[in-house]
Amino acid sequence: MRPILAAIVAICLVFFLFGTATDLISGNKAYYHRQMIENEIPEETGKSLHELDKISDGLRDYLKRGDNRVLKPYFNQNELAHMADVYALFHLMRKLSVAAAVIALAGFFGLAKGFGVREGLRSVGRATLVLIATFLVLTAMVAVNFTKAWYTFHTLFFSNSLWQMDPATDLMIQMLPEPFFFGMVKRIGLIVAAGLIVMGSFALLKGSKHEIK
Q: Closest Cα partner for 168 from 46, 38, 39?
């Protein structure tokens, strides 16, 4: 029972961390601005950096509130429909992140009550080691072929082809090319990796398994 409960706690904590990191990075104004410059988006779109920053503000606001009035002046109907799908995915992720946090807290309370705080932390740490191995495999797959991984992600989480945009005509894909998302995924991955290392280090805690009840 303890290994199963510890695994549930670890998985929920990692999902909460992933959701939080995704929200933070996708809402980071400085990241969007920097990517507009690095990917030469003003030259690609014919729009000024100031205008691109304004459109980016609208994208970030939409991901928070889901009000497409901030996007209508800039994007066509297919792009707006895809962003509705993206917002639905973000909304689900946020709800699941809250649920994961609650489950993790309740699960760790059960571990601490039954086996002590230190032993509970050690159990979560040991469960995290398996998640670290899984994370490393996924990281290698994404690093080797991000294009394929990104395509697979979209086929799994979107039930239509609206995400397959035309770079010649669709502003959204012009503004947000693959390097934009690769950089975002790397930053989210680094945050998750840091969390996994901290959680995994709990397995090294010393002391009696019944030290704290």
A: 46
CB 39, CB 176: distance < 8 Å: no
Residue type, 6: A
pTM of the complete model: 0.92
d(CA 37, CA 31) in angstroms, rounded, equals 10
Over the chain, what is the mean pLDDT?
A: 95
Using CA atoms, how far apart are residues 151 and 164, in angstroms rounded to an integer? Answer: 9
Question: What does the pLDDT look like over 91-109, one tens digit per residue?
Answer: 999 999 999 999 999 999 9
DSSP 145: -
Q: Is the pLDDT of residue 171 over 80?
A: yes
Using pLDDT thresholds of 50, 70 and 90, give the confidence band for residue 213.
very low
Give dist(CA 172, CA 181) in Å, integer. 12
Residue the block writes with tokens 């495999």: 137
Residue 154 is given by DSSP the state H
- The Cα-based distances of 69 to 29, 47, 66, 88, 97 in angstroms read 19, 20, 9, 16, 27
- Report how far Cα 156 is from the mean position of its chain's Cα atoms: 15
- What tokens does 131 get? 């998640």
